[in-house]
Task: inverse folding
């Protein structure tokens, strides 16, 4: 693996790039780096958030002024570099395990048949594959509490819908490309809906608000 | 005290200094579209800058105030209340704010700050993420107690106006504006001829040569399908040298994305925390409030700015705001 790279994301944020592609080991590295940077509690760092293969750090440039000609970005990047290099890969992945009960197909999963047809499998085989796999949360994003999961069996990979739905019901379990996830609330969405869970994935008044967290292991259990 | 919403206007929402530190949950910063105007409104009533204020869009709300208070209105010009200055309101006062002829956002701060629900550490409404909703008629907004020593002189002088009507008479007898006001010029700019600074993004070099030139040559127009989440730019489709397959990575307010349609999108206050489109540029922080004030149909031209220059300008603005804040504090106390 190449050493991580730091690039500016505008003038108040930066990205630490750990690699390319959707890959469990690259993601583990991103999570470890995010954990290390968060734990360092650097001044003026407002937000640290991991993604599949990168970590975003939002910062207040006014906290990174120095006497020399370095820009705040250069100063912060200089401070982050050794942290990033020392972040032990995989150190932050012990983040728990959760089972998500799912009602597959029917009204709960209107696209189950389409996924089965695309995969040239029976409905039952799709359910068995989806609920038989071990998943890991790569990142949260798109909407609060939406978890992108690693580990979808290749037979179930399927391009997103050409036309996204304007309304996807809360709790919908869905497949988009090589990814699977659960919609925490009713939003528009372009993934294929194969089932639904009654678990409340996100409640801003709860602590923690999101049921899933990066690094967490997930299994779907057919009801 | 409480503010009752009699009519919400086109879209009015509660916004504080933003929701920070929750991107890992998938929650973006939200906060004000024109953050400088929001901060100035708070400064003018003696609040901490992060206090929650009302963000008003295009057409203003009608509001009722049940106790004596001091408010300030900043941003795009609206009828109904003198702007860019503290204004005293008597208990029972009602204001009806009009329609903006230019610009898109105005901010009404009230001394003490609005005490909306705190979700994930912030009172900012994030409409797209379902964290709070825009105001509707009948909503009652509690207001936190104002710190009296922050603006003692202001309150004494303003409320004396009710006993001895000043030279500048207000049409509303329950409203007494300060006789001084802030010159909005350095802070607020509606001239669509002024360019908006953009730093090249990671995928700028992946744009075709013509598209690289077009980003900075085109007089873009803001699309009607723009929102607090993002402004859609029309007039010139930009194309990539070849299609890019990207893994979802972070996006922030100011990020200029290029979706497959070729019409760039500038992400704004309610930017989603991640996106998979190429990042061709970033609107610089000091120009984001100016861009926010452009409404659908308005023009936008971009000018290239280096990262170092953008950060220098940001630090200069913050220094100027700190100095202004000190001057206003002295007037209020």
Result:
């Amino acid at each position: 693996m190449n050493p991580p790279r730091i690039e500016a994301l505008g003038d108040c944020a930066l990205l630490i790039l750990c690699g390319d592609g959707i890959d469990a080991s690259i993601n583990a590295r991103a999570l470890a780096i995010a954990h290390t940077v968060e734990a360092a509690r650097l001044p003026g760092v407002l937000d640290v958030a991991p993604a599949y293969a990168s970590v975003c750090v939002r910062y207040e440039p006014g906290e990174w002024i120095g006497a020399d000609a370095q820009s705040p970005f250069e100063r912060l990047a200089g401070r982050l570099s050794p942290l990033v290099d020392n972040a032990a890969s995989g150190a932050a992945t012990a983040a728990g395990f959760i089972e998500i009960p799912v009602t597959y197909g029917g009204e709960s999963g209107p696209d189950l048949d389409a996924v089965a047809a695309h995969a040239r499998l029976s409905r039952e085989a799709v359910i068995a594959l989806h609920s038989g796999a071990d998943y890991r949360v790569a990142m949260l994003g798109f909407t609060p509490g939406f978890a992108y999961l690693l580990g979808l069996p290749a037979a179930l990979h399927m391009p997103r819908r050409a036309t996204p739905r304007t309304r996807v019901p809360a709790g919908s379990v869905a497949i988009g490309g090589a990814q699977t996830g659960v919609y925490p609330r009713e939003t528009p969405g372009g993934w294929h809906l194969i089932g639904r869970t009654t678990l409340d994935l996100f409640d801003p008044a709860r602590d923690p608000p999101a049921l899933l967290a990066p690094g967490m292991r997930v299994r779907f259990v057919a009801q | 005290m409480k503010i009752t919403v009699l009519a919400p206007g086109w879209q009015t929402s509660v916004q504080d200094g933003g929701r920070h530190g929750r991107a890992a949950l998938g929650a973006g910063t939200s906060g004000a579209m024109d953050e400088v105007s929001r901060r100035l409104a708070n400064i003018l009533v003696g609040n901490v800058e992060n206090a929650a204020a009302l963000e008003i869009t295009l057409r203003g709300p009608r509001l009722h105030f049940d106790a004596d208070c001091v408010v300030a209105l900043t941003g795009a010009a609206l009828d109904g209340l003198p702007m860019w200055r503290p204004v005293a309101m008597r208990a029972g006062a009602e204001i009806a704010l009009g329609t903006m002829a230019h610009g898109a956002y105005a901010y009404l701060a009230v001394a003490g700050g609005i005490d909306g629900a705190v979700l994930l550490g912030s009172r900012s409404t994030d409409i797209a993420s379902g964290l709070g909703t825009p105001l509707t008629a009948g909503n009652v907004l509690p207001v936190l107690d104002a710190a009296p020593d922050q603006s003692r002189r202001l309150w004494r002088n303003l409320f004396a106006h009710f006993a001895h009507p000043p030279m500048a008479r207000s049409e509303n007898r329950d409203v007494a504006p300060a006789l001084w006001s802030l010159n909005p010029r350095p802070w607020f700019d509606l001239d669509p001829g002024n360019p908006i600074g953009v730093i090249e993004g990671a995928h700028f070099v992946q744009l075709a040569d013509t598209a690289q030139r077009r980003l900075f040559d085109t007089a873009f127009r803001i699309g009607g399908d723009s929102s607090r989440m993002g402004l859609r730019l029309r007039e010139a489709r930009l194309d990539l040298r070849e299609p890019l397959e990207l893994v979802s990575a972070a996006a922030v307010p100011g990020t200029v994305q290029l979706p497959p349609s070729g019409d760039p999108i500038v992400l704004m206050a309610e930017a989603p925390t991640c996106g998979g489109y190429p990042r061709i540029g970033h609107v610089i922080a000091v120009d984001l409030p100016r861009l926010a004030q452009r409404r659908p149909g308005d023009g936008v031209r971009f000018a290239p700015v280096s990262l170092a220059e953008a950060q220098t300008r940001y630090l200069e603005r913050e220094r100027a705001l700190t100095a202004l804040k000190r001057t206003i504090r002295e007037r209020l106390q």
User: Anything to note?
Assistant: The longest helix of chain B spans residues 307-332. The mean pLDDT of chain B is 93. The two ends of chain B are 22 Å apart (CA to CA).
